[in-house]
Specification:
Elements lengths: L9 E5 L2 H4 L41 H14 L4 E5 L2 H4 L10 H16 L3 E7 L5 H7 L6 H17 L5 E5 L9 H5 L7 H25 L4 E7 L3 E3 L4 H23 L5 H8 L8 H7 L5 E5 L4 E3 L3 H4 L26 H15 L3 E5 L17 H20 L3 E7 L19 E3 L11 E3 L1 H11 L10
Parallel strand pairs: 1-2, 1-10, 2-3, 3-4, 4-5, 5-7, 6-8, 7-9, 9-10
Antiparallel strand pairs: 11-12
Helix pairs in contact: 2-4, 6-8, 8-11, 13-14
The structure holds 6-O-phosphono-beta-D-glucopyranose.
């Protein structure tokens, strides 16, 4: 296939602090909401007990092993690595005035290591975690004060890393709060719709304030949002199904509408009214929201279907969204439906809607890998998945969509977010650790490692039209 990828396309991978770093109490780090979910986003929220080590407490020990991992990413030719900063390394409780120097110094070392190889950082300010102190003392994002604490955190890291980091993201999969309120906004899972939307509103204002701060502080810096791109198709062409699909797509596009267009879309008024949802939005908030993002970023793993037929509505349950299965698609071992064409469709939908550059910051296949007797890992299923998705990215670029880059999810095996499993592997690099936490943590190159290296080296020329 001849390359359609632009010359400066940002090829790379994406990880999140709480899924790779471990060292959950090292160098003054405070407890985060993620630390209270040792079984993952869909597990119970548990108080931490000393010596009770959930798998994320060590994760893949990236906190100590990052030099080796960055060297492996460099060997694949990465131009970009998406990481997140653990807010609790910088402000352990969340409401301190002065930051924790040891936490700031860690990310200095990490960015310096990346710079040695010319790997640009793309940094998420909050990836599925916030200081638990803010939840306990203030009620998380339910409290307006959290906006100020977040802005202080954002300004602190922009000042510190303004010469090291050009590309920033505010909140990972910001639309997730509708499905996992504790992870997204630090609220109890049984919170009312009004409470959840109020917390979301505070987070949207905080996101806009961070955008403003980035523009003020980081010379030439660009900042984006991050959406879970759960694009939905109507299961049938029945007009009611089409209309319901539009409504459900707006559930998540709403976040992009606020962040990219600078205010609440009109359709939300009716939605709030008909569902009895009360949200306090001040004139000052509206003013803050006018500061819009520079680019849209999103994750894409699967598409889903929508129907108004109740009997079919109970059939699907994925990690985050309840989607009706598409009869035309196969599924991963975890039941996530595989739809490369959906990525081209989604890129076009987002570009038509916002006319802003797009960045695919997560995409990948979670699968079980087998280490052969000779130590090799032949993950052709992963190569096929990624090849087919990247071919569709190339098609979207040919459609005229502006795509800044592609960071595949979990370029190195890490702890899964939904259920805190190691056996759900995404990496080009294998990590010797199992679900019970046994293993040497040794790193090993998989077959896909060499495949991705060739894709990057050829700027996409080595992709095959059909894997
Ligand atoms: C996204 C998250 O939802 O999906 C990541 O941003 C997560 O943190 C990824 O790891 C894949 O989900 P899982 O549950 O397979 O880890």
């Amino acid at each position: 296939m001849s390359s359609k990828f632009p010359d400066h396309f940002l090829w790379g991978g994406a990880v999140a602090a709480n899924q790779v770093e471990g060292a959950y109490q090292t160098d003054g780090k405070g407890l985060s909401t993620s630390d209270l979910q040792p079984q993952g986003i869909f597990g119970a929220i548990t108080p931490r007990v000393d010596g009770d080590s959930g798998i994320k407490d060590v994760a893949i020990d990236f906190y100590h092993r990052y030099p080796q991992d960055i060297a492996l990413f460099a060997e694949m030719g990465f131009k970009c690595l998406r990481i997140s900063i653990a807010w609790t390394r910088i402000f352990p409780q969340g409401d301190e005035e002065a930051p924790n120097e040891a936490g700031l110094a860690f990310y200095d070392r990490l960015f310096d290591e990346m710079a040695r190889y010319g790997i640009q950082p793309l940094v998420t300010l909050s990836h599925y975690e916030m200081p638990y102190g803010l939840v306990k003392q203030y009620g998380g994002w339910g409290n307006r004060k959290t906006i100020g604490f977040f802005e202080h955190y954002a300004r602190t890291v922009f000042e510190r890393y303004k010469h090291k980091v050009q590309h920033w993201l505010t909140f990972n999969e910001i639309n997730m709060s509708l499905h996992a309120p504790f992870t997204g906004v630090g609220l109890a899972e049984d919170s009312s719709k009004s409470e959840i939307y109020q917390a979301i509103h505070h987070q949207l204002v905080a996101s806009a304030r961070a955008v403003k701060a980035c523009h003020e502080i980081v010379p030439g810096g660009k900042i984006g949002n991050m959406l879970l791109g759960g694009i939905l198709y109507p299961l049938s062409c029945k007009p009611e199904d089409v209309l319901e699909t539009q409504r459900q797509n707006r559930d998540w596009l709403f976040f992009g509408d606020v962040q990219a267009r600078g205010g609440y879309p009109a359709y939300m008024r009716r939605y709030f009214r008909e569902n009895g949802i009360q949200v306090e939005i001040t004139a000052e908030d509206q003013q803050a929201l006018r500061e819009t993002i520079d680019f849209i970023s999103f994750s894409y793993y699967m598409s889903g279907c929508v129907t108004t037929d109740e009997a079919q509505n109970n059939t699907a349950r994925t990690n985050i969204l309840n989607m009706v299965p598409n009869p035309h698609l196969a599924s991963s071992e975890w039941g996530w439906q595989i739809d490369p064409v959906g990525l081209r469709y989604l890129l076009n939908v987002l570009y038509d809607r916002y006319q802003k550059p797009l960045f695919i910051v997560e995409n990948g296949l979670g699968a079980k890998d087998r280490v052969e007797a000779d130590g090799s890992i032949n993950d052709d299923y992963r190569i096929n998945y990624l090849n087919d998705h990247l071919v569709q990215v190339a098609e979207a670029i040919d459609d005229g969509v502006e795509v800044m880059g592609y960071t595949s999810w979990g370029p190195i095996d890490l702890v899964s977010a939904s259920k805190a499993e190691m056996s759900k592997r995404y990496g080009f690099i294998y990590v010797d650790r199992d679900d019970a936490g046994n293993g040497s943590l040794e790193r090993r190159r998989k077959k896909s490692f060499y495949w991705y290296r060739d894709v990057i080296q050829s700027n996409g020329n080595s992709l095959k039209d059909k894997a």
